[in-house]
Design a protein that fits this description.
Helix content: over 70%
Order of helices and strands: HHHHHHHHHHH
Shape: globular
Mean pLDDT: 84
Distance between the termini: 27 Å
Number of helices: 11
Number of strands: 0
């Protein structure tokens, strides 16, 4: 038992207690999301009204291009297949993989990014409660096609709904999350090719959510604003507890990883 604990804690920068605390924080955010979903699932009519309001706003600005854009993409089935796969898989897989890598390999920067995510999820929950919005794929009267359901089948689409709120189009947290991992990645990674890929990632995610008709471009713009506000909030929190929460790229303390003597930020 002692040997297992020792070797397991060697690769955890701040030991088991801190690792479990981070998992608990994200699990708490997930369950808060589930509670909010239960509240707004009964507001279908309101969510559709809000979606049509988004359409009207974009039309008044002369920027309601999504139906034509999706129609163009549908002429390239391979492109739509990539977008469908990315929408179903990348949001959870890429975000989780990056956060795990960040925690293990660049632990000093992890807590700043974690605070961004906590703030952003809080803002998203408030947004979903205040303005539940149906995604464009549910507005067939405007010519939108639900490409994800058509691609993976109704059974898989229902399984995906366990993770994604059907009336949480505003703001787009796909776009927010993409920005909140891409910007730190660009600052932390020295390999030029990888930095270019990370720079492209938020653009790719924005393309994916529009082509699959899961978000309006305005949802993505608000998602980007959420990411920006969350970054500023994380910066402000870092000034309150600079030793624990400030943005840093230096390696974790040498005492970290033993699970014994490291000071674990909250």
């Amino acid at each position: 038992m002692t040997r297992t604990w020792y070797w397991s804690s060697r690769w955890l920068p701040r030991g088991w207690f801190d690792a479990l605390r981070q998992l608990t924080l994200f699990a708490g955010a997930y369950y808060a999301y589930r509670i909010v979903r239960g509240i707004i699932d009964g507001q279908t009519a309101v969510a559709f009204d809000h979606a049509r309001s988004v359409v009207n706003l974009e039309r008044n600005m002369g920027l309601f291009f999504e139906p034509g854009f999706q129609h163009w993409a549908l002429g390239l089935p391979w492109l739509v297949d990539i977008a469908d796969w990315a929408y179903v898989n990348s949001h959870f897989v890429v975000t989780t993989a990056f956060l795990v890598w960040l925690y293990l390999a660049r632990n000093s920067a992890y807590y700043f990014v974690r605070n961004m995510f906590v703030v952003s999820m809080g803002l998203a929950i408030l947004g979903y409660l205040a303005y539940p919005t149906a995604p464009p794929r549910m507005l067939s009267e405007w010519g939108f096609t639900d490409t994800v359901t058509n691609a993976v089948g109704q059974g898989h689409a229902n399984a995906a709904k366990l993770l994604f709120n059907p009336y949480a189009a505003m703001p787009s947290m796909h776009v927010a999350f993409a920005l909140m991992i891409a910007v730190p990645a660009v600052k932390l990674i020295s390999t030029r090719a990888l930095r270019v890929l990370w720079l492209f990632y938020p653009v790719f995610v924005s393309f994916v959510v529009v082509v699959t008709a899961n978000h309006f471009w305005l949802d993505g713009a608000v998602g980007a604003a959420v990411a920006a506000v969350s970054g500023y909030a994380a910066y402000a929190l870092g000034r309150i507890r600079p030793a624990a929460w400030a943005w840093r790229t230096d390696p974790a303390p040498e005492t970290a990883g033993t699970g014994l003597g490291a000071e674990a930020p909250a």
